Amino acid sequence: MDFVLVLYQPTQWTLIHQLSAPLKYSIPHAVVSFGPAGQLVRVTPGSSTQKNISQLEIHSMEVILSETQEQQDMRNFPGPLTREGLHKVDAIEFAHQRAGACMRDETLHDKISASLLWKLLILLCRQNGQIVGSDIAELLVQGSRSDGSWESEAPTLIDFSEGATAEAPPCQGDDLLTGSSSSGSEAAQKALQSYTQLLLAGRKKEALEAAMSSGLWGHALFLASKMDNRSYTTVGSFGRFTGQLTVNDPLQTLFQLLSGRVPTAATCCGNDKWGDWRPHLAVMLSNETGDAAVQQKAIVTMGDTLASRGLLHAAHVCYLTAGVPFGPFTQKAERLVLLGSSHR
Predict the structure, then answer these.
(1) SS in 3 state form for 29-64?
(2) Quick one: which H or E segment has residue 342?
(3) Alpha-carbon distance 73 to 78, whole Å?
(4) Residue-wise pLDDT tens digits, 33-88
(5) What is the rounded distance in angstroms from the CA atom of residue 20 to the CA atom of residue 18?
(6) Would you state the pLDDT for residue 305?
(7) CA distance 92 to 152
(8) Which of 25, 27, 194, 285 is the most buried (most CB within 10 A)?
(9) Taking the CB of residue 67, how many other CB atoms lie within 10 A of it?
(10) Would you call 115 exposed, middle or buried from its count of C-beta atoms within 10 A (0-12, 13-18, 19+)?
C-alpha cells in the first residue's frame, strides 16, 4: 500500500489512503465445491437488482463425466472398496483385473513391473499378509504372457492360472533323474580322472588348478583346505569361482550378499545391459543371511536404483518386500506414499 499527502489548507496536512492494487473480486463471484455423494455444488450470488438472492445448483459428477473413459471403467467394475463388506475374493478379483489391464496398457513404461505389483498384493491377500521371502521369490521368477497371465518354467506352489499346465518332456539325451546331459557327465568324469591322476602322482598344486579349471569346486575347496593357507585363500575366497560367472549372474548377487556386502546388482540393475532385476531380488529374498540389516539395505538400495531409472513400480516392489513403511505425502524424502504413484 502507498500513502500520499494532500494539502487542504496552508497549515493543515491530511493523510489519505490510496490503493495500489485492484480488488480481488470486482463483482460477486460463484463458489464451487464437491459434495459428499459425487456432486458438484455451485452457488451463484445474486446482483443488487435481484435483492441479493443467491442461486444454488447441484450437478451430478457421473452425468458430467459420463462420456469419459474413467467413468466407463467405473461402470464396468466399480471396485471392492465401494462397499462396506469387503470379501477377500472380491479384492483378489479386482487385483487380477488390474494386473491384466497393466499388461495390456501400452502407455506404461514398465507394464511387467506394474502387473507384478498387483500380483504381490494378490499374494498378500491370499495368505492374509503372512508371507516369507521364498514366496515372493517364487512369484518374481515366474514369466508373464502378453495378456497378463503368468507362466512358470518350473512347478510352483503359487499358481495364478486357471487351468492345469502340461509338464514338458525331458530333452533327448538328458538324464531322467538329474536332468544333466550325457555329454556333460562324460566331460566331468574325464576331468575327475585327470584330477585323480595328478593326485596319484603327488602333484597337488597342478591337481588344484585342474579342479578349478574343470569346475570341480568341491574337490578344489577340500584339497586347498589341506594345503597351505595361500592355496585355501585362493579357493576359499571364491575369487576364481566367481570370476567364471558373468557380472549380472544372480549367483554373483548371492555370494556377495552372503559375504556381508551390498551386491553390485543393487546399484547397477534396471538397464538393458544389466538385464532383468527380478532374479537378483528373488535370490536375496529366498536366502536369509546372518545380518538382516545388510539384506534390507541391499533391497532398499535396489529399489532406489530402480526408482532413479524411472521404474517406479519395480521400486515399490522392492520397498514392500524390504518392509519400508509408508510416509506422509508432504515428506519428499519418503520412499513409499501411494503404491504405483510418485509424490516427488
Answers:
(1) CCEEEECCCCEEEEEECCCHHHCCCCEEEEEEHHHH
(2) none
(3) 7
(4) 888 878 888 888 766 555 667 788 888 888 888 888 888 877 767 666 666 677 78
(5) 6
(6) 93
(7) 20
(8) 285
(9) 8
(10) buried
Residue with cell 579349471: 213
Q: What is the pTM of this model?
A: 0.62
Tell me, rounded to whole angstroms, the distance of Cα 48 from its chain centroid: 60
For residue 340, which of 109, 140, 72 has the smallest C-alpha distance?
Answer: 109
The Cα angle at residue 277 between residues 273 and 283, in degrees rounded to 5: 130
Sign of CA dihedral 244, 250, 255, 261: positive
Cell of 186: 562324460
Give the Cα separation of 258 and 93 in Å (integer): 39
Range 119-128 burial, b when 16+ CB lie within 10 A, else e: bbbbbbbbee
- What's the pLDDT at 81? 64
Q: What is the rounded CA–CA span in Å between residue 174 and residue 176?
A: 6
Residue 264 in grid coordinates:
553390485
Spatial separation of the C-alpha atoms in residues 200 and 194, rounded to whole Å: 10
First-to-final CA distance of the chain: 38
| Closest listed residue to residue 224, CA positions, set 331, 212, 339 | 212
Cell of 177: 533323474
Cα-based torsion angle of the residue sequence 278, 279, 285, 290 in order, rounded to the nearest 10 degrees: -130
